[in-house]
Design a protein that fits this description.
Distance between the termini: 48 Å
Largest sheet: 5 strands, mixed
Structural class: alpha+beta
Number of helices: 8
Number of domains: 2
Mean pLDDT: 93
Helix content: 40-55%
Number of strands: 7
Shape: elongated
Strand order of the largest sheet: 2-1-5-3-4
Length: 299
């Protein structure tokens, strides 16, 4: 069948395009056909819609009732970057900033001092968290969308580089929390309780990520209902455990910077959880009705 591709940008010289494609073709095949005629627009840059409905990869054109002679709208999403690369860039910032502030205290704060036990434990907790995130990005996660607009990498990285990197490191490792200071003193029971809760939440978060990974065969965008640890209570237990991770850091450090990062992160994760929860319930008619979005028994 023959399909016309119209650009939503009125000043495009490459469109409209006329594409000849089999009647049983998939959206992926159509994107490849467009790419062959307009090589600037590789598939990840393309957003195709019919009557404002997005044509999702992995589905056939028939599923969207597209027939011979129909017109499809095209939008250029701009230069793209892989989600895996974005995540690696995001988490790399704190991995660099925290050792700088922890080990070069005389250069940054203008004086030598001994770190308190709280500062040392907090340092290893935070470093372990972000190293874990890098390892998960490289070896665990399977992404439903391969790329995102390149310009978004700066916005996404700011959250981690500035809030959990520069800002958090500066305030946690400063001389006001040093050994012998009142602000840096913590009871041993509090330190080790926070460290224990942190470790449990980290392992739990990793386990939920493995469950999600195993739902999607390599190279596919398959979506299934997740079950098991955490998922029997909420749609996004990974976000819930991530919140517990940072709550333990907040209680340990008593740092306003840590609470700020948690507040911003929790708000974003909760919005994502609500969106995913609604998507699950819309896509799967047998989705468990007793699950909450992110916080067990609450929301």
């Amino acid at each position: 069948m023959q399909i016309t591709i119209n650009s939503r940008s009125g000043n495009s010289q490459k469109f409209p395009l006329t594409i000849d494609i089999p009647a049983d073709a998939t959206v992926d095949q159509l994107k490849q056909a467009i790419y062959k005629k307009a090589s600037k627009y590789y598939p990840d840059r393309q957003r195709l819609t019919v009557n404002q409905q997005v044509l999702n990869e992995g589905k056939t054109l028939k599923e969207f009732n597209i027939k011979d002679g129909d017109t499809i709208s095209f939008k250029d999403l701009g230069p793209q970057i892989s989600w895996r690369t974005v995540f690696c860039i995001e988490y790399f910032g704190p991995i660099v900033f925290h050792p700088i502030f922890y080990y070069f205290n005389s250069q940054i704060y203008g004086k030598e001092f001994e770190h308190s036990k709280m500062q040392t434990i907090a340092y290893y907790m935070i470093m372990a968290h972000f190293i874990k995130r890098e390892i998960e990005t490289l070896f665990v996660h399977r992404f439903s969308h391969g790329t995102m607009p390149f310009k978004n990498v700066f916005k996404n990285s700011f959250h981690y580089h500035a809030l959990s990197g520069l800002n958090l490191a500066y305030w946690v490792y400063g001389p006001w929390n040093a050994a012998g200071s009142l602000d840096g003193k913590r009871e041993d029971w509090l330190i080790w309780t926070c460290a224990g809760v942190f470790a449990w939440a980290q392992v739990s978060n990793l386990y939920t990520h493995i469950i999600l990974r195993n739902l999607r065969p390599p190279g596919t965008r398959v979506r299934r209902i997740p079950y098991g640890y955490g998922f029997n209570l909420v749609s996004c237990p990974n976000y819930f455990f991530e919140t517990i991770v940072w709550l333990s850091v907040c209680i340990l450090t008593k740092s306003f910077a840590a609470w700020l990062f948690l507040a911003v992160g929790f708000t974003q994760m909760y919005l994502w959880a609500i969106k995913k929860h609604k998507s699950y319930r819309k896509e799967f008619k047998d989705y468990p009705k007793n699950r909450k979005a992110m916080i067990p028994f609450i929301a």
